[in-house]
Write a structure and sequence with these properties.
The protein is of the alpha+beta class. The chain has 6 helices and 7 strands. 34% of the residues lie in helices and 20% in strands.
Length: 210
């Protein structure tokens, strides 16, 4: 296995345009979106991953995702978070339902962007080994039950990037993403097939993922 490789992701490198956010929230909130988005530009997300040749514990991925990882020679276990600084921003709007909602939507989008950026970093690591890598998969997605967070976290350092897991398998700070990427000679990055998925419980249902 590798040690935990940690990275910082200043959000101003991935600055969302107002029209991108408007596509998620609907029209009519450009001024509010602009003010909130400016606060996110001061944040620095954290993330990292470890690579294992073999996993000793069942991650409870479910048959669809497990079928991908069974072909892999290695598995990257990752995590990213917007950190407690996001929660400070959110708390300032807790008394205003609209602004709190807009903040939540913007934060979720940045979390997905950073997770995808770390996925690219894992792909670069894999290419150095002359191996391919998969999409990122997370508990709560595509049949991977949420309680799979517990065995997943056993492969990460304690409180990785300041993230902790509660008894309900939820992460704190809340805008965090954990998961795994398959690495191997016969592994390829493929577009998510959310359009054909019939899992009504999937956390990402009806959400476009890059």
């Amino acid at each position: 296995m590798t040690g935990f490789l940690r990275y910082s992701f200043p959000l101003d490198q991935f600055a969302l345009r107002i029209e991108q956010i408007r596509a998620l929230t609907g029209p009519g909130f450009d001024n509010e979106i602009g003010r909130i988005n400016e606060k996110f530009m001061r944040l620095e997300a954290q993330g990292g991953f470890s690579v294992y040749d073999k996993l000793e514990r069942d991650l409870l991925m479910g048959p669809k995702i497990s079928g991908i990882f069974e072909k892999a020679e290695k598995t990257a276990i990752f995590i990213i978070t917007l950190g407690k600084e996001y929660e400070v921003i959110a708390d300032t709007y807790r008394g205003d339902a609209l602004l709190y909602y807009l903040t939540d939507v913007i934060a979720s989008e940045y979390a997905e962007i950073v997770a995808s950026e770390l996925n690219k970093t894992i792909a670069e690591y894999s290419s150095l080994l002359a191996l391919g890598s998969s999409n990122r998969y997370s508990p709560g997605y595509c049949g991977w039950i949420l309680s799979g967070q517990k065995p997943l976290f056993s492969y990460l350092p304690q409180f990785p990037c300041g993230v902790e897991l509660n008894d309900s398998s939820l992460m704190k700070p809340v805008k965090s993403v954990s998961g795994a990427v398959a690495i191997g000679k016969n592994i390829k990055f493929k577009k998510y097939d959310c359009e054909t998925c019939r899992d009504e419980r999937c956390l990402y249902r009806n959400k476009f993922i890059l």
